[in-house]
Amino acid sequence: MRTRRRPAPAPPEPPAAPVPLLDWRDGPHFAWHERCVLCRKTTPLRSHAGEAVHKTCVELWNAEHPGETRFVSDPPKGGKGKDHA
Asked: Which of 8, 16, 57, 78 would be 38's cystine partner, CB 3.0–4.6 Å?
């Protein structure tokens, strides 16, 4: 007997305008794997509110919901950054 698999959800349509990228480098953005609140696939990433969510899902959600503050970037750190040109 064969079982039918559900078709995978279609990926979200890319937005027309460029998507601002988030800075989620701090340790609190990582935890055990749970399902993303937006796409339902597993992820170790967490939002500032502790929601399990992919960074790319958040960036697309933010592009589709301008002005919303559900998902935000980390504040910039003072002093010189660790990034090198």
From this structure: 57
| 34 located within any domain | yes
- For the entire predicted model, the pTM comes to 0.68
What's the pLDDT band for 46 if we cut at 50, 70, 90?
very high
Alpha carbon distance 57, 38 (integer Å)? 7
- Comparing C-alpha atoms, which of 37, 67, 66 is closest to residue 54? 37
What are the residues whose beta carbons fall under 8 Å from the beta carbon of 56, sequence distance 6 or more?
none
> Residue 57 and residue 76: Cα distance in Å, rounded?
22
Query: What domain range is 35 assigned to?
Result: 27-64
